[in-house]
Design goal:
The protein is mainly alpha-helical. It is built from nine helices and no strands. Helices cover 83% and strands 0% of the residues.
Length: 229
């Protein structure tokens, strides 16, 4: 019986990884948009991005998740009912989890990418403009490679925290690693055993991520040293 529960916990790892990777993609997209908004010359976009990062980082992750999963559909349904539409709005746990984690870590990614953008030498961009490069060409050839290198340490930290934060989605019914670990613990009265299995899974993801991203960082740094030499 114990072995079956362990296998079910590990099998749920695919759901946890799907949630983590999808949320990371969304957070990265939001972070890039927010970072460029913060360094833009448009006061409205700077202000909007500033309010977003300030508010999201000031609210606990679990509260944001509960607001999106429970409160937001209720508000939307009230609005739909007031309009007389025969529509019911409901979010699945996976959709709410992706939206929540993407929104939360998008705020942290915004600051990570903003700092990286500010550390790109302006002289390079000015030289590219003087040579007549288009904005798209400047972004692809100059900004994006340096942005990726400079933001990698902060990006790595955000990813590690995000991967562990996926455990919160078990509270809204997503059948992830923590959901199955909790079920196994309650069914067998062996919480230490099964929560330890869950901890091992998250630790393995963290260890693999650190090794992989460290290799990427070293190769990027090696390329920079070769150019400098």
């Amino acid at each position: 019986m114990v072995g079956d529960f362990v296998l079910s916990i590990l099998a749920a790892g695919s759901m946890t990884l799907l949630l983590a990777v999808t949320s990371l993609i969304l957070a990265t997209a939001i972070g890039l948009a927010g970072a460029f908004a913060k360094v833009s010359g448009n006061r409205f976009w700077r202000g909007l991005a500033g309010v977003y990062t300030f508010v999201v980082r000031g609210i606990p992750d679990l509260v944001v998740m509960l607001l999106i999963f429970y409160s937001l559909p209720a508000v939307l349904n009230q609005g739909v009912e007031a309009l007389g539409w025969n529509v019911h709005v409901d979010f699945s746990p996976i959709a709410a989890g992706i939206a929540t984690l993407g929104l939360i870590f998008g705020a942290y990614m915004t600051e990570t990418f903003r700092t990286a953008l500010l550390n790109i030498p302006k002289g390079q961009i000015e030289a590219a403009v003087a040579y007549g490069l288009t904005r798209f060409r400047i972004f692809v050839a100059i900004i994006l490679p340096q942005l990726a290198r400079l933001a990698l340490p902060g990006f790595t930290n955000n990813w590690l925290v995000l991967a562990k934060a996926t455990a919160l989605t078990s509270l809204i019914g997503l059948h992830d690693v923590m959901f199955h670990a909790k079920g196994a613990a309650e069914a067998t009265s062996m919480p230490f055993t099964f929560y330890l299995v869950a901890a091992g899974f998250y630790f393995s993801v963290t260890l693999f991520s650190i090794v992989l991203l460290s290799i990427v960082a070293r190769r990027t740094a090696a390329g920079i040293r070769e150019i400098a030499s």
